[in-house]
Design the sequence.
């Protein structure tokens, strides 16, 4: 099967940016579902379907942000970050969670993954699922970008999975990985120039 216009896909991939200045109403439910459907076409190990998504309603956000903020505050204090920087970082994270027009949480489940007694292979197996999650999120981000939406990835749930699960009443088998914030780019948004990367620096032949 040949793609009649690979340049259109190349352009869509190149045009995607993480856009953090979001505004506007929540995405319509059909649009959220269309983006999640794109995520669900990602490659996955052993024909598994390890991805799960949660659309987090505004009503749940404060509790969620509080729980995650408490966990992060303890981490930052442990790191010895000065009080003012801690407060700034915590307030910014909270704003991003609470103010996102649409907030999606992506999770992984282990269904269908091989089980190994040894740590090396068990970790590698979970790594396979995480690779698939990255592919799923990229699909979603590209779909958002192609629709003129703004979107970006927040990795904080990976650092506070128990708090996220508890705040959203999720099953213990759902492993929180990341948020995707979605909305419309605000009026100040200007796409940054991605540096021209010299392929030779990232690529070898053997
Ligand atoms: C695994 C992963 C975690 C990320 N976590 C965050 C995050 O917590 N907060 C954030 O603002 N951006 C996050 N990003 C987005 C990156 O900062 C962004 O992709 C990078 O700066 C390159 O910009 P671009 O996406 O516009 O090309 C994350 C991206 C990935 C792949």
Sequence:
């Amino acid at each position: 099967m040949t793609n009649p216009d690979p340049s259109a896909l190349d352009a869509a991939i190149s045009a995607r940016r993480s856009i953090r200045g979001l505004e506007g109403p929540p995405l319509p439910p059909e649009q959220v579902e269309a983006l999640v459907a794109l995520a669900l076409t990602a490659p996955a190990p052993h024909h598994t379907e390890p991805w799960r998504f949660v659309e987090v309603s505004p009503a749940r956000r404060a509790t969620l942000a509080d729980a995650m903020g408490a966990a992060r505050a303890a981490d930052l204090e442990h790191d010895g970050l000065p009080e003012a920087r801690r407060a700034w970082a915590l307030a910014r994270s909270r704003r991003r969670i609470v103010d996102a027009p649409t907030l999606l949480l992506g999770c992984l489940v282990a269904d269908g993954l091989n089980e190994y007694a040894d740590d090396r292979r068990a970790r590698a197996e979970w790594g396979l699922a995480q690779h698939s999650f990255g592919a799923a999120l990229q699909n979603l981000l590209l779909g958002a970008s192609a629709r003129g939406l703004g979107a970006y990835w927040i990795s904080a749930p990976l650092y506070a999975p128990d708090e996220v699960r508890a705040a959203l009443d999720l099953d213990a088998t759902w492993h929180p990985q990341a948020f995707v914030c979605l909305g419309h780019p605000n009026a100040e948004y200007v796409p940054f120039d991605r540096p021209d990367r010299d392929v030779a620096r990232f690529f070898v032949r053997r």
Q: What stands out?
A: Residues 17-18, 20, 152-156 surround flavin mononucleotide (CB under 6 Å). The chain is about 50% helix and 15% strand. Strands lie at 22-23, 51-55, 102-108, 150-154, 175-185. Helices lie at 6-15, 29-39, 58-79, 83-99, 119-146, 161-167, 199-202.
